[in-house]
Amino acid sequence: MPLSRHYLIPALLAALLTVAACSRGGGDDRAPEPGDRAVARVQERTIWASDVKREAVAQGLVGEGEPLDVTSDLFRRVLDEVVDQKLLAAEAEKRGLDNSSLAQRRLEATRERILGDMLVENVVNGQISDAAVQRLYQEQLRLARTSEEIRVRLILSRTKAEADAVIGILGQGAAFEAVAMERSIDDATRFSGGDLGYSTLDVMPQAYAAALRNAAAGATVGPFQTEGGWAVLRVEDRRKETPPTLEQARPQIVRYLTYEGVRQLLEQLRGKAKVDVLLSREAGAPQEPASAPAAPAATPAPSSSPEPVTS
């Protein structure tokens, strides 16, 4: 089953409405889409609900497959913008601006972009199935390297003497969280009992990573010096990273598959067409096509816990 067009590149341009305004006859009241609804009329030109929805999608206010209630404030705001576009387009036509060669070139360029988008939707979107997404997801899971996450609490002191005092208090049985709230100078974590959340060693400050590398869950580490002060850590937990779910990875996978589909389509079209670039090397050689995005790696799902402070 084809996936949502919300992920296709690029979205239909807002200029589509201007093109429609310049080309649609004023007396045509036929709905452009089945079940469409007329929502306004500007100088005998009808504005349909689909016009407003298309403008909202072009502005990134809603996704291609998302509903837009005609009674919502967002719909009314976008409708006002579409009315303004209609008025501007009508005035431009009244002044004869649509007959200029510049206007015709711009309108033709917009038309070509829209047709290109429609070709991508019809050709590429049909190739991006749930099965294709699932296959790439499973392949990335197979190739992914899982790392270990460590949950740590921190008490940061200004001096080693203060950090040694913290060790003494902890040694007497005081709760790490309570001591962190009372003595830590790290305002970002002290009120959560020094909780740094889950992180992997590769994203931690070097001093933290070195101290925690072989520390078991439940161990207290430190004190050791960092740029921010003297740190005492407690290892709350160690666990394997959790890879993203299919639904979490789907947007990135669809973007990758879409790019690949467009690239292959363009290769086929260029192979059949005669393309002459009329620029000399001195005038600047054409750039190579942009590199394809890397295949989405099955990286772990992002943690909602705060990251460690920079040492």
**Spans where pLDDT lies below 50 across 5 or more residues:** 1-27, 301-311
Sketch the topology as an H/E string, one letter per element: HEEHHHHEHHEHEEH
Tally of alpha and pi helices: 9
Biggest sheet character:
4 strands, antiparallel
Shape: elongated
Q: Please report which band the strand proportion falls in: under 5%, 5-15%, 15-25%, 25-35%, 35-45% or over 45%.
A: 5-15%
Overall average pLDDT: 80
Work out the number of β strands: 6
User: Could you tell me how far the N terminus lies from the C terminus, measured between alpha carbons in angstroms?
Assistant: 49 Å
Tell me the strand order in the biggest sheet: 4-3-6-5
What helical percentage do the residues reach? 40-55%
Q: Pairing-aware structural class of the strands and helices?
A: alpha+beta
Alpha-carbon Rg, integer: 29 Å
What's this entry about, in short?
The chain is of the alpha+beta class.
What are the key terms here?
311 residues, alpha+beta, Chitinase A, domain 3, 4-stranded antiparallel β-sheet, 9 helices, 6 strands, 14% strand, elongated, disordered N terminus, disordered C terminus
Structure description:
This protein has helices at 15-23, 49-58, 73-94, 101-124, 130-143, 160-171, 176-183, 206-212, 246-272, and strands at residues 38-42, 45-48, 148-157, 195-200, 220-226, 229-240. With 311 residues, it is of the alpha+beta class. Among the domains are: 5-119, no CATH class; 148-240, Chitinase A, domain 3 (Roll). The chain has a 4-stranded antiparallel β-sheet with strand order 4-3-6-5. A hairpin with a 2-residue loop joins strand 5 (220-226) and strand 6. Helix 1 (15-23) packs across helix 3 (73-94). The longest helix has 27 residues, at 246-272. The two termini are 49 Å apart. Mean pLDDT is 80; it is low at 1-27 and 301-311.
